[in-house]
Design goal:
mainly alpha; 2 domains; 15 helices; flat
């Protein structure tokens, strides 16, 4: 009875989310096919060049070459992954940012449903859409290979790994995009902050590297930070927090540790998104951020990054005999003052979009 009651409460919410993005939902698997199934058809069913080389491949077959030659080491899956991530970003924008802009969020909050259930319905619709698109197009891709001259090299484990890993990548990106949408107050701020945070770990490492070098600290494996290796720390950030790296990872590079990290990121983002959405103050819609705590984090993060960028410019504009440090410090101080003034003005504004 409890399960039935829970599902009966979810159905109207899922129906509403479906009606809101109906055309987009139908477009996702179609465009996904253009990125995954269609290129495989061109590779093995319509391309005479690949068929001409197939006999030579069979004669010189080495197991390690199977995934590189027959499956292009997952190149088509990577293209499909990027499309689904773009679709996840657009869907999150429609579900939260556009909903705030057109005023339908207030009406939604007046319905007799808990806010965390509303948020979960949004997430569930997206998760089902991306899982369904991946499952359908993976089956099509496998069917194409089964009907091709390379059918004897069809590997179920390859498709299982690609399906599972791609789903984790897309769900992690979608969950993070929804989480960002729960703390931003407009379509513009949700859009900008999503892409900024996706690139921030890598950009911040580069900024920190340049800042330390300007002060005579070399980020090398043999020095710095009292025998602690900054470049190893930087490499770990680039490896574990570079979402573009996860998205473009080819089949032979997929690791269980990375997949587990994506799973944890998805669950954590979902939980935090539900928490933030259940406390959304509608009176702050249109502002850059809707929570004071989020404003504080954005303010200090923006000032720090902008100041380091200004410091890098200062090393080029104020090169003196004393070296790069003085020029960097001049730029850093100026950047700190200007960025603090700028972000203060932005946080006070209300955006129409």
């Amino acid at each position: 009875m409890r399960t039935k009651s829970w599902w009966s409460g979810m159905r109207p919410l899922l129906g509403r989310e479906y009606a809101q993005a109906r055309l987009f939902i139908f477009a996702v698997p179609i465009v996904h096919f253009l990125a995954l199934g269609l290129p495989r058809m061109n590779q093995w069913l319509w391309s005479g060049q690949n068929m001409d080389h197939f006999d030579r491949f069979q004669m010189n077959f080495v197991h390690g070459d199977l995934y590189r030659y027959v499956y292009d080491n997952g190149t088509h899956e990577v293209a499909g992954r990027f499309w689904l991530l773009l679709a996840a970003f657009v869907l999150a924008l429609v579900q939260l940012g556009v909903e705030r802009r057109n005023g339908s969020q207030e009406l939604l909050f007046s319905l007799p449903y808990a806010r965390n259930r509303i948020f979960f319905a949004k997430w569930l619709l997206g998760a089902a859409l991306f899982a369904g698109s991946l499952f359908l197009n993976t089956l099509i891709d496998a069917a194409v290979l089964a009907l091709s001259p390379a059918s004897e090299f069809l590997r179920a484990d390859y498709y299982a790994v690609q399906f599972g890993y791609s789903l984790l990548v897309v769900l992690a990106g979608y969950s993070c995009a929804l989480l960002i949408g729960t703390v931003t107050g407009s379509v513009a701020s949700q859009t900008i902050l999503t892409w900024v945070l996706a690139a921030l770990p890598i950009v911040f490492v580069e900024l920190l590297d340049s800042s330390l070098q300007a002060h005579g600290i070399q980020m090398s494996r043999r020095g710095g930070y009292d025998s602690y290796s900054p470049i190893m720390w930087g490499d770990r950030v680039r490896s574990w927090f570079n979402f573009f790296n996860y998205s473009s990872m080819q089949y032979l590079d997929i690791k269980w540790g990375k997949a587990l990290f994506l799973l944890v990121l998805s669950l954590a983002s979902l939980a935090l998104g539900q928490f933030a959405y259940s406390r959304n103050p509608t009176e702050n819609n249109g502002k850059l951020m809707i929570f004071k705590s989020a404003e504080t984090v954005l303010r200090y993060g923006f000032v720090l990054c902008a100041s380091m960028v200004a410091g890098m410019l200062g090393t080029e504009l104020f090169r003196l005999n004393a070296g790069d440090q003085l020029g960097y410090d001049i730029g850093f101080v100026l950047g700190c003052a200007l960025s603090a003034w700028g972000i203060r003005k932005l946080l006070r504004m209300r955006f129409k979009y």
